[in-house]
Amino acid sequence: MASHCSFSLIPIYSFGTVDISLAKHGDKYDHECGRKITIEGESPVSSPAGLTGYKKYSHIFTGQYFYLGEIKYKSKEQNGFWGIRDKKYTGVDVYYLTSDHDNNSPLLITLSPGGQAYTKTAGNTWKEVKDIPKGGNYGYRIKELLQKIKHPPTTIVKTPAPPTNPTQTESKEKPTTQNAPKKDANDEKTKDKKPTPVQHKPPEKPKTENKPTSSGKVAEKVPLISKTSSGNPLLAVGIISGVAITCIIVYEGTMIFFSPNKALITRLIGMTTPKKL
Predict the structure, then answer these.
(1) Does residue 256 share a domain with residue 133?
(2) Are 38 and 122 in the same domain?
(3) Residue 101 needs a FRET pair 20 to 30 A away by CA distance; which of 25, 55, 138, 160 works?
(4) Do the domain assignments include residue 142?
(5) Distances (CA, A) of 184 to 144, 175, 180, 190, 192
(6) For residue 108, what are the domain limits?
(7) Burial class, 26, CB count within 10 angstroms (exposed 0-12 / middle 13-18 / buried 19+)
């Protein structure tokens, strides 16, 4: 259905276009002939009593001699409104479910004055309702029409509410210090302290075991002690193992000679015969 503005000397007629997808209360928009259309929203619909779950947007024309040229939804022409160009109108009302937050599914369109009503059949096609309920006021007739309409399914998208406390988001970003190890005051004091030098002990004397000899006798440990000509102490450990005597000479903790001949050791280091302790 094409829309246009036609003019004559007396009177001046204009054919306007209504876009029912525009649904912000208080907004105004221009139709093709330059006149204003004002939007009035009501959500939920307050009358008639008992009509709940619906909202209404009224597109009200300004000026006189307004003829409705076409009805659109999101700039797409809607079909089925035959004969509307023959009458003057003051407004167009469109109804939605209150749960249809984005106004994706218009349910009912009514024209005023006159009360013609149209319901959607499929796609962009509408059909005029001929069997409008008789009796009662106009509001109750609209209520009965809406209750007869098979409502399309609507998708309700819930947006998560922002946190009321701004510190809630900050606590997620900042790491918690509740379980962090506490600093010890003594740690700072011990940083400047020098490590205590480790004192090395002299090596322990090798242990000797009583091992059996070839004759079957167990060797006997006989510690002997004497002094050199210079007066330094010497320790001679003699192990009597039958005939021979094995001597280990230790000088100030260090073994300096080893021989099975005690007389040879005594002669080499100039010591007297070791005495048994």
Answers:
(1) no
(2) yes
(3) 138
(4) yes
(5) 80, 21, 12, 10, 15
(6) 14-148
(7) exposed
Residues 32 and 123 in one domain: yes
Shared-domain flag, residues 56 and 143: yes
Mark whether 228 and 138 lie in a shared domain: no
Residue 164 lies in a domain: no
Q: Is residue 241 part of a domain?
A: yes
pLDDT in tens, the chain (277 residues): 444 555 544 455 667 789 999 988 888 888 766 678 899 998 888 777 777 889 999 999 877 657 788 899 999 999 998 878 778 888 899 999 999 999 999 999 998 887 889 999 888 999 998 776 655 567 778 888 888 886 655 444 444 555 555 555 444 445 545 555 555 555 555 555 666 666 666 656 555 455 554 555 444 444 444 444 455 544 444 444 444 445 555 555 555 545 555 554 455 455 444 444 3
Q: The tokens of 7 are what?
A: 């003019």
Among 148, 168, 200, the domain-final residue is 148
Cβ burial 240-272 (10 Å sphere, 16+ → b, else e):
ebeeebebbbbeeeeeeeeeeebeebbeebebe
Give the position of tokens 């008639």: 48
Rounded to two decimals, the pTM is 0.50
Residue 242 structure tokens: 């039958």
Report how many domains make up the chain: 2
